[in-house]
Specification:
Number of domains of chain A: 2
Radius of gyration of chain A: 21 Å
Oligomer: heterodimer
Mean pLDDT of chain B: 95
Largest sheet of chain A: 5 strands, parallel
Number of helices of chain B: 8
Largest interface: A-B, 82 and 65 residues
Number of domains of chain B: 1
Helix content of chain B: 25-40%
Mean pLDDT of chain A: 97
CATH architecture of chain B: Alpha-Beta Barrel
Number of helices of chain A: 16
CATH topology of chain B: Aconitase, domain 4
Chain lengths: ~475, ~200
């Protein structure tokens, strides 16, 4: 019978139906970081449990890493304690750690794919909601909380209820200057931040087929912002080409067997979906958020809504967002003055993101009042970018070129907004206070749009700044 | 491991209005820089509380009328965003013993179950009525009865919904599920053995 990738992967990893009615699901890859794991390891110690599949577990440090200096001990003693604790836990439980200073260190959702750990047909879990990123490879990847991190460490399993599957067909082709980030912002705008609750999102269609793996990662990364705990793209030639030669990818005769198996896990053509939605990629323009959740966005040529523009039951929420953001409603989003520009995060901190932003920045200068920083998603991204001379392009323009980590996406390190600063950000969340200042304001957009905003000192359409073909 | 069963939560309630309240608001990220969950209770909604104060308003979590409340009344998609278990931990450590809302984010809901914090759902109109009731009469006693799947307020009994597995976990005291996952470990090993990638193809 025709099946979706979701149900094939789910069935293959099912251990049993639990007495509670949930499914016990084997986790093929467990990614661990310093924020959501210390309490879980402590619970293992209390109960006397070990980690039975340490080779299916990989740790790194990302959230708390300072990006200006890696000198130890960290200025923040609690951050230092978190890293020390992760190092000790990994030693005690035999979990491999890509530690600070290593070329393999970086944001957990950047290094998993980079190292070839993330592969099609797997189940992947991590104590971080943006685990949905790994779905770009045709894996079933879930964000989990700390108690579930404990479950996976101790048993390599999760107790879960199956999700429904919504197919999102993104037809047509993206225009130059319009990116995967704009596609996902448009999807969330249309379906809402809770539209995906209970679903896994399967992205397909011409525009998705044409996307690089890094673009697909951006797309799947923000599934969770639309309420969908998981999102995925069926594996294809693009997926296999990306994986070939990666350190943890199979090689030799095993490579051919792997490709055949990976291809067999893709959704069958006649698979049935619980819901289908179509979006025309060709009609999209760059998107920018104006509010306090990722569903509150508008095309760059559009206007911030007035609360009177929306249905009565949605007015209070729009009014709250306008008030927090300091918009009166009705103004163009373009021209909104910014104070900070942040390029980075698990959403848009990869090499292709930095390349696109550098095309905009090259030979130009950051507006004098703007603090602009580039935080590569991993040390490997940083090294690759430096090899291409991207660091020099950014520095010459007035950007700070930083070390790898999560940085100002959620400001658990020293990179924080101050006061009511407005940040043009390539990250994933514009929640109140998200970037470290309780009153700070975030405008989400693509890295190229962040670069354009940094130069203009205000939100600006990147398209006229992009010379030549993409 | 069997923990104390949770059958019924009763007490005063605290109304917190608004859809899509994200976990960054419930507990800002700076409080996650710690290797324990200790002390999170006093920081729940810290930035929202400060923002209210700055405007001369009182956030419900600071309102003495709602001090000691055990039941949190919320609206739609509560707990969206980050998967941080610190969010339900902060609520539970701040004295909240049950959350009643129109709907919850999936990850938040799972995290809450895993730490013994029941979340039950009611239609939006009923939630709005309850929030108004409690705002008008702050010490009104509410009771969430998981056994009967009801909420008792103002002398009325309303049916609430909660997934059966979560309800069963609370009633049996099996809401901390690791032991259950370890019960038949040969089954786990059998699945690992049939996955081509585990053996490196």
């Amino acid at each position: 019978m025709a099946a979706t990738l979701f149900s094939k992967v789910w069935d293959l990893h099912t251990v049993r139906k639990l007495p509670t009615g949930q499914t016990q699901l084997f986790v093929g890859l467990h990614l661990v970081h310093e924020v959501t794991s210390p309490q879980a390891f402590e619970m293992l110690r209390t109960r006397g449990w070990g980690v039975p599949f340490p080779s299916r577990t990989v740790a790194t440090v990302d959230h708390i890493v300072p990006t200006a200096s890696l000198a130890r001990p960290f200025a923040d003693a609690r951050a230092e304690e978190m890293l020390t604790s992760l190092q000790q836990n990994c030693r005690d439980f035999g979990v491999p750690l890509h530690d600070l200073g290593s070329l393999e260190q970086g944001i957990v959702h950047v290094i998993g794919p980079e190292l070839g750990l993330t592969q099609p047909g797997m189940t992947i879990a991590c104590g971080d909601s943006h685990t949905s990123t790994h779905g770009a490879f045709g894996a079933l990847a879930f964000g989990i909380g700390t108690s579930q991190v404990r479950d996976v460490l101790a048993s390599q399993c999760l107790a879960l209820d199956p999700l429904k599957v919504r197919r999102l067909d993104v037809t047509g082709a993206l225009a130059p200057g319009v990116y995967a980030k704009d596609v996902i912002l448009a999807i969330i705008r249309r379906l809402g931040v809770k539209g995906g609750v209970g679903y896994a999102y399967e992205y397909g269609g011409e525009a998705v087929s044409r996307m690089s793996m890094e673009e697909r990662m951006t797309l799947c990364n923000m599934s969770v912002e639309g309420g969908a705990r998981a999102g995925y793209v069926n594996p294809d030639a693009t997926t296999f080409a990306y994986l070939k030669g990666r350190p943890a990818a199979p090689s030799g005769a095993a490579w051919d067997r792997a490709v055949a198996w990976w291809a067999s896990m893709a959704s069958d053509e006649s698979a049935r979906y619980d819901d289908r939605v179509t979006l025309d990629a060709g009609a999209l323009e760059p998107h920018v958020t104006w509010g306090i959740n990722p569903g509150q966005s508008v095309g760059v040529s559009g206007r911030v809504p007035r609360s009177s523009d929306v249905a009565p039951e949605a007015r209070a929420q729009v009014a709250e967002a306008l008030d927090y953001m300091g918009f009166s409603g009705g103004e163009t989003i373009s021209g909104t003055k910014i104070d900070v520009a942040f390029i980075g995060s698990c959403t848009n901190g990869r090499l292709s993101d930095l390349r696109e932003a550098s095309r905009v920045v090259k030979g130009r200068k950051v507006a004098p009042h703007v603090k602009a920083l580039v935080v590569p998603g991993s040390n490997a991204v940083r090294a690759a970018a430096e090899k291409e001379g991207l660091d020099a392009i950014f520095r010459d323009a007035g950007f700070e070129w930083r070390g790898a980590g999560c940085s100002m996406c959620l400001a658990m390190n020293p990179d924080k907004l101050e006061g009511r600063q407005v940040c043009a950000s390539s990250s994933n969340r514009n929640f109140k206070g998200r970037q470290g200042s309780p009153t700070g304001r975030t405008l989400l957009m693509s890295p190229a749009m962040v670069a354009a905003a940094a130069l203009a000192g205000e939100v600006a359409d990147v398209r006229p700044m992009l010379g030549g073909a993409r | 491991m069997t923990l104390p069963a949770i059958r019924r939560v009763s007490g005063a309630a605290l109304p917190l209005r608004g859809d899509d309240v994200d976990t960054d608001r419930i507990i800002p990220a700076r409080f996650l820089v710690s290797i324990t969950f200790e002390g999170l209770g006093e920081h729940a909604f810290e930035d929202d509380r400060k923002a209210a104060k700055a405007k001369g308003k009182t956030h419900p979590f600071d309102d003495p009328l709602f001090a000691g409340a055990r039941i949190l009344l919320v609206n739609r998609n509560f707990g969206c965003g980050s998967s941080r278990e610190h969010a339900p931990q902060a609520l539970a450590r701040g004295g909240i013993k049950a959350v009643v809302g129109e709907s919850f984010s999936e990850i938040f809901f799972g995290n809450a179950v895993a730490i013994g914090l029941p979340c039950v759902a009611l239609p939006g109109e009923a939630i709005a009525r309850l929030q108004s009731l409690v705002e008008g009469a702050p010490k009104s006693a509410l009771a969430v009865d998981l056994e009967a799947r009801t909420l008792i307020a103002d002398g009325k009994t309303l049916p609430v919904s909660i997934p059966e597995n979560a309800r069963e976990a609370f009633l049996s005291g099996n809401w901390d599920g690791t032991s259950m996952l370890l019960e038949r470990f040969q089954g786990v090993e059998a699945v690992a053995a049939r996955l081509p990638y585990v053996a490196g193809f």
